[in-house]
Design goal:
There is one protein chain. By secondary structure, the chain is an all-alpha fold. Among the domains are: about 190 residues, Citrate Synthase, domain 1 (Orthogonal Bundle); about 110 residues, Cytochrome P450-Terp, domain 2 (Cytochrome p450-Terp, domain 2, Orthogonal Bundle), CATH 1.10.230. A hairpin with a 3-residue loop joins strand 1 and strand 2. The chain is globular and about 65 Å long. The chain starts with a helix and ends with a helix. Bound molecules: carboxymethyldethia coenzyme *A. Carboxymethyldethia coenzyme *A binds next to loops.
Length: about 450
């Protein structure tokens, strides 16, 4: 298989690089840790390694060094579409090179072979109470699949450490192949009461399969949005909650299913992946209050009312980014090219115009610009997905691509269990007192 071949070719030299860095330069200082960071969510402490993606505060995400517009242009496109094949993106994240169309299609074919979901997973989903959140269902389905983990099985059979990545690759391909079916099943079951099992068509790519299994009409190009959405949401370096949860849990050699379920649980938090549904909710609230797109002055006042009411304006601000998120820009471009007159798109655009100035006046948020969530729900809404709590499931399907690529690399490089050190409040106070003493 192409991914196995390419990874095998890269790993020996890369392992040597890591080994020599740790052995010969282990004492070199990269960063220091302040009291503010210890108390403030470890913000910005440079302490994770990944080559899959990097968030540049001034430019946004770089996938294997490529900005989003360049990447979207370079990756091979799906048949009859303008958006790249998702299989090509997975190849890029894992191997670090833009694949040929044949290579991207090889990944797609690999997914098609592995897409079937065991019957008991559907049964388990069906037996859950109706009101269960779809993210809970998704995470449960991933945990249920753990039963078939190649990594867990081979680990218990005594697999050698330098083979971990191969088992991780197997599980990651199986898992990412099954997610579209599981997500579509959850959608049709939860909101439409349908329990027929979606079938993956090997003649269609990941995006088209998803759009068809969701039963969203493709007349206006939902498969194109699915491709774009999964690609944009795949990775955002390693420090965000979902990626870091995968990394942390995986560092205990928990297999990709156990680790990805943890990742999804983090993604389900309102300050992370759930923000997309909250953002759309906020836009709709504005629209309902003003009976359509408000004037700029009305929007300005409403934004202040939200902040003064102690609420966040979802979709704005970011822990690392200091510019508009290029994932926002890519989705806004998509909407403006295809449905510029849609009311919510016009409103999201006006929010982009008005809200950053409100944040600047307030002077609290370090980044007054939109993040990925400021628009993503609006696009789904346009295509008829009106059940907001499903949106994070879409994020989860995309996020799997990046976090599994990272997982495979971490096992390939033999990364150790993660174990930062904690301090007591008294120790932090003592450190502050010591720093205040004259030299
Ligand atoms: N609305 C209101 N207040 C905001 C805000 C927003 N959108 N963004 C930041 N702030 C406030 C913070 O709550 C904080 O206030 P306090 O000092 O009173 O605690 C202050 O501004 C400083 O925050 P920050 O350092 O700029 O931002 P953080 O790194 O702490 O938080 C984030 C980042 C994303 C959690 C925050 O901006 C937020 O809550 N945004 C809205 C939710 C959202 O869009 N989340 C999606 C993030 C995207 C992703 O997960 O990839």
């Amino acid at each position: 298989m192409i991914l196995h071949e390419k990874m095998s070719a890269q790993l020996p030299a890369w392992r040597e690089r890591i080994k020599s860095l740790a052995k010969e330069h282990g004492d070199v200082v990269i960063d220091q840790v302040t009291v503010g960071q210890v108390i403030g969510g470890m913000r910005d402490i440079k302490s994770l390694l990944t080559d899959v993606s990097f968030v540049d505060p001034a430019h946004g995400i770089l996938f294997r060094g490529m900005p989003i517009p360049d990447m979207l242009k370079a990756l091979p496109k799906a048949k009859g579409g303008k958006m790249p094949l998702v299989g090509g993106l997975f190849y890029l994240l894992l191997i670090g090179e833009v694949p040929t169309k044949e290579q991207a299609l090889e990944v797609e074919a690999e997914w098609a072979k592995r897409a079937a979901v065991p019957e008991y997973v559907f049964k388990m989903l069906k037996s859950m109470p109706k009101e269960t959140h779809p993210m809970t269902l998704l995470s449960q389905a991933v945990l249920a699949l753990q039963n078939g983990s190649v990594f867990a099985k081979r680990y218990h059979e005594g697999m050698k450490k330098d083979q971990y990545w191969e088992a991780a690759l197997e599980d990651s391909l199986d898992l990412t192949a099954k997610l579209p079916i599981i997500a579509a099943y959850i959608y049709r079951m939860k909101y439409f009461g349908e329990t027929s099992k979606p079938k993956y068509n090997p003649k269609q790519d990941y995006g088209l399969n998803f759009s068809r299994m969701m039963k969203v009409s493709d007349k206006k190009g939902y498969s194109e949005l699915a491709r774009l959405y999964f690609i944009l949401h795949s990775d955002h370096e390693s420090g965000n909650v979902s990626a870091h949860a995968m990394h942390l849990v995986g560092s205990a050699l928990s297999d990709p299913y156990l680790s990805f379920s943890a990742s999804l649980n983090g993604l389900a938090g309102p300050l992370h992946g759930l923000a997309n549904q909250e953002c759309l909710g906020w836009l709709i609230e504005v629209k309902e209050k003003f009976g359509g797109v408000p004037t700029r002055d009305e929007l300005y006042k409403f934004s202040w009312d939200t902040l003064n009411g102690g609420q966040v304006i979802p979709g704005y601000g970011h822990a690392v980014l200091r510019v508009p998120d290029p994932r926002f820009t890519a989705q806004m471009d998509f909407a403006k090219k295809r449905f510029p007159d849609d009311e919510l798109v016009r409103l999201a655009d006006m929010v982009f115009d008005v809200v950053p100035a409100v944040f600047k006046e307030q002077g609290k948020a370090k980044n007054p610009a939109p993040n990925v969530d400021a628009i993503s729900g609006t696009l789904q809404y346009y295509y008829g997905l009106r059940d907001f709590d499903f949106y994070t499931v879409l994020f989860g399907v995309g996020r799997a691509l990046g976090v599994t690529a990272n997982y495979i690399w971490m096992r390939g490089l033999g990364m150790p269990i993660e174990r930062p050190k904690s301090l007591t409040t008294k120790m932090v106070e003592d450190a502050v007192a010591k720093a205040a003493q004259p030299a």
